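Entry:
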Amino acid sequence: MLKNGLSYFGIMFLSLLSHISLLTVVFAKGNYESIIDPMILSAAVLILDVGYFTVLRFLKQNTYAFDILLVTVLNISVIFQSCFGKVGFAGKHYIFSILVLVLCNVSAYLVRDYRKIEKYKYVFYGIIGVLILSILLLTGSRSMWIDLGFITIQPSEFIKPFFVLVFSTSLIALNNKHKILCFNVVYDNWILIGLTGIIVLLQWWCRDLGSLPTFASVAGCGLLMRICYPKAKLSKKLIGGICAGVAVIAGVAFKLAPPYVQARLHVDIWADQHGDGWQQCQALIAIAEGGWFGKGPGNGRLYKVPAADTDIIFSTISEEWGLLAAFLAVFLILLLIITAIINTPRSYFHTTLTVGTAAVFIVQMALNVFGSCNLIPFTGVTLPFISNGGSSMLACGLLAGFLKAGQSMVYYVPPRPATRQNPQTRRAVR
């Protein structure tokens, strides 16, 4: 039984029912040339459902709610991605969805023991350094992509899970303070502040400021978790100082933003519908035309617009499936995060790991949804688990494993003390 009272088969049935309902809409309202197209899609989705539910029966853990929610979100994304423009089968996205499930369980296993992570933490610093060097040396002129011809890789996406990992810490590490002048400092905290500055400069140099809020949120949450020990209280002066500092940094960044960012911040999209505002105008029109229930799978036209299946996917889903379906997808991702947060983490390390991962997902969702709705400028950030893209999906798989690890069953059993045998018992054994 799950903690909320639902049986394993009960929640599995709800997941299957959600996918069957969407597939029924595809058959009834979808734009397809042959009935075989939705049948292939249906078979793939149901096979992944049944296959993963079967695998879960062999995994020993306290709750399966997170895993079932994850496969629910992934199969919904497969259905969405397979219907943009015309019903078919998004084979590439389907494969990456399977890899997300694999990476989730692998990363969850690897971060179970916080003592090993603390021991090899500087290895992760090295991995981040290698990824930064690959961006500088292999992506070309101020780009974030490595083009191998048959595939493109975005190393900055893989920096995110390792960035979350190095910011996560245990209470033991936080108590390892060193006296410098009149201050007690933790060396790791200052190293992480320096690493954050390097990443900010890297994003600035590569003209990819859309990911800055994600890295900033991880750094902010990580530093707060390092300062706020359990049951500790922050003074009002310190909270005010932190808020003032953030406001000053945001103001300076706004003033020093490069011209292309300033143009996005000040553009009137309706006055420049055929220029800088064209993409955002199309996204808003698509949301309006889709209404609450959408035009039907495969009946939209926004798929012709660049980044329709990545950066403005919220608008693409709203056009074909309706605003209700788009909000449902966002709600399920939030539910995935909440499921991990409400379960008591096994250690303070896993608490900080969960908070950092939640910061990544929530900020990325906000940037994608608000950008699609023209509440903020486009940032080029994907919607976790939903947007198309290999690097983004694999990074999400690693991060999902961090959420799962925090709520899994306790791995450590202290050894039993040796018991002394009674002399009479020893003689009896002889």
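Residues 1-5, 409-414, 425-430 have pLDDT under 50 and may be disordered.
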